[in-house]
Amino acid sequence: MRSLHPTFFPPSAMAVVAVTMATCVAGHAQTCADPLPLVPDNPTWASTCGAQGFVTGGLAGPGAVLSFNLDHSASVYFTLSGTPAFEPQVCVTDAEGECGTGPCLATGDASNPALLDGLPSGSYRAIVTATPFSAPGACGGFGIIESVAPDETIVANGFD
Q: At 117, which helix (H) or strand (E)?
């Protein structure tokens, strides 16, 4: 099984990425109605605003909305990186609920990646906002990598 800990770009690389970020998401609103699709094991660069915390495990307000689908049960790991003076956080939700208001299945930030073990097949959202530690109304760029590893079933060999 491959590692769920992907290599991510160091903060010094963020300046280069910030220049190209606009072209990566140009014309894409990153909203509940039009989420930006995540591609496993590929960095996605976008921007978001607002220091909207995930109050008691739920999302207190909208942010940049990204989507992903699983066609089988898997472990999913999200790594975040922010631009200077901007601290992003992620809330992973089930796409069945109302966007931007449901409970978080997992949360993470640039220091604490979000990890979901045994996530069943289905559609999900990753919503990124500024952390409450950012200035009110803070806006900034972020990078996110979604790593997916299929859950493995261990079959008994009969020598128990």
A: strand 114-119
